[in-house]
Amino acid sequence: MTDTLTSNPAPAIEVAGLECGYGGKPVLKNISFTVGRGEIFFIIGGSGCGKSTLLRHMVGLHTPTAGTVKFLGQSFTLADTAARRGMLKTFGMLFQSGALWSSLTLRRNVGLPLEEYTTLSRREIDEIAGLKLGQVGLGGFEDYYPAEISGGMKKRAGLARALALDPAIVFFDEPSAGLDPVTSRKLDELIRQIRETFGTTIVVVSHELASIFDLADRVIMLDRAEQGIIAEGRPRDLLANSRDPRVSEFLRRGDKPL
Amino acid sequence: MSAPPETRNARASAKVDGDTLEVSLAGSWQITEPRPSWPELLGPQNPARVRLRTDEVGVWDTSLLLFLSAAQEWCRGTGAYCDVTALPEKIRTLLAQLTAAHETAVPFDRSENFLTTVGLATQDTLQKGREISHFVGECVLSTVRLVRSPRKFRWRDCLDEMQQCGAMALPIVSLVSLLVGVTLAYTGAIVLRQYGGDIYIADLIGLSMVREMGAVMTAVVLAGRTGAAFAATLANMKANEEIDALEVLGIPAVQFLVLPRLLALAVMMPLLALYANALGIFGGLAVAYGLLSIPGTAFWAEMLTIVDLSDIATGVIKALAFGLIVGLSGCLRGLQAERSAAGVGRAATSAVVTALLFIIVADAIFAVLFNALGI
Ligand SMILES: Nc1ncnc2c1ncn2[C@@H]1O[C@H](COP(=O)(O)OP(=O)(O)OP(=O)(O)O)[C@@H](O)[C@H]1O
Ligand SMILES: [Mg+2]
Fold this sequence. Notes:
heterodimer, A: alpha/beta, 10 helices, globular, B: alpha/beta, Transcription Regulator spoIIAA, 2 domains, four-stranded mixed β-sheet, 12 helices, binds adenosine-5'-triphosphate, binds magnesium ion
């Protein structure tokens, strides 16, 4: 991964004129932004404004009605199935509920991407899976089934799975929703650590103001009525300079302790 | 009644004062208690002004607001002036919120006229047809891919499913097919005894079990047992974003989840059908012995004069096709399910219905086909 990083200067993610919607009803229109390599990028906005929708359209779970998404300079929306598969392994995604495969143990959950994309032996795969689980603080839970662990643990296991292939880009859908403050803080630290260690590009959908100010290099804010981006920039700059009442209202809520 | 006035039931009175209708509410207004309604109070009157008062109201909740907003609504509709100045501040604020909610709600029209409904239904049917053919096509393509690289196949899952849909289904398949054999024998005996052709009961049982009943009854049992289970499992995985997680990893759900299940059914269904044939014939044989006093050896010998390998083969081919139908409908309905608990239930139901429908249709097609081929 590292040599493509240096030889290919294109930004990690380029979204241009993206239009998202379900069943012909548009939810978002004309979304354009870029995410630099190694950046921690937040997508924020009120409930129902289309954050999850944007994420799901970007990773190809739904087909956008217009516009393009490029990863590492390569078009994803126009790619054929084989090229798409090649690109899919360069990113990981953590779903809101963890989305662990309930019929597999944590070890097999984390190991499955490796089984799919590598020719490693079963022993090596198990070893790597154990390592990744240890990294998110789940050492010793390798043989548990998803139904036997708590919500926060599921999320961390989901993160271990998203990181299994050492992806260049990781998407997080509300990583801290439903977690207690301490756990969500730990998760934030983990995210930062991943970026620091591997130079991973990270895209987070979040409501959590503490995380936004703590982690985000840059944010975009979506708005439901506007069906698009209403603000873009560093969170502190937006807080200080934005004249849009919707932006300052959203950001001010959580910045009291500073 | 000795209760103080404000705790008695909700009351409303109207007094005409020139062109103004003075409405006074009193008593305790509670949503769980009976209360007056605005249209009843109004009757045939058509005032130009309505003045609302709640001075004598005791305890109140949303029911009071409902009444007041109905009055307001009526005023807005007829153009009458609604005077709310006599209402307490709190109630006025709540009423204003209610009105605001009315005005800002985005109109979302779910009503449709007849033509639209028919058009949408047609589109929907076409769409469903497309989805089915798309799904079947995807299964075929995935199978081809897997034949090229069999290492990717989830053998473990497939074996688990075989155990689930094959071995675990033995008791119910045994019971059903045995009873079908018995029932057929009793029914056949009524007719055959009239003509003194008792021995032909063996032909009747043998042929109908092997060619028809064995495969069909097994398919019906597995549609209810396994097809529904497939649909529920996949629908639940979908609601839980597990399928999305697969797609994002570039692992097609069809390859990972559907093919192992299809193969398991394709293998187990013919085996179960053969087993069902044997038990059905045994049931018929027992009845023939008990009711018509035909010895087992005679029954067997007579049956072999008419049932040959091609009959057994037709049954097995049918069972294979039915197995694929059950598996495909279960998986398709599971993958199409809505992401909700209700969606899981609907997926299971519709998997069974789809499977049964297609089993009957396929059986009819097979009947015509085998007849044309002279098998
Ligand atoms: N599967 C779907 N079909 C149709 N409409 C949908 C679907 N999913 C979401 N929507 C609509 O898209 C809009 C945006 O939804 P989305 O889930 O993206 O919001 P969100 O920004 O993630 O909100 P939250 O912060 O509450 O998760 C909503 O108005 C919703 O009604
Ligand atoms: Mg969301």
